[in-house]
Specification:
By secondary structure, this protein is mostly helical. The chain has a domain of 48 residues. Helix content is 89%, strand content 0%. The chain contains three helices and no strands. It is rod-shaped and about 95 Å long.
Length: 70
């Protein structure tokens, strides 16, 4: 085996050993991770909005009670 064949075998084995690591660095994987992160943020904001809406209506109800406008 000459030196060129040895280098190609080494390079090939390094690439084969990467396995999923090669996939982890891809643009698509990075994009998927970003989308999942923002999806999680969206659901947190959605829950916050639900709680804010509940609080808003609770305050309106309390104001009406204080005013005597049942």
């Amino acid at each position: 085996m000459d030196w060129l064949e040895r280098i190609s075998v080494l390079v090939q084995s390094v690439e084969e050993n990467k396995g999923w690591d090669n996939h982890e660095d891809s643009f698509e994987e990075t994009l998927r991770r970003e989308m999942l992160k923002w999806k999680g943020m969206y659901f947190l904001i959605q829950d916050d909005m639900k709680e804010l809406t509940k609080s808003y209506y609770k305050v309106l109800e309390e104001n009406n009670k204080l005013k005597g406008n049942n």
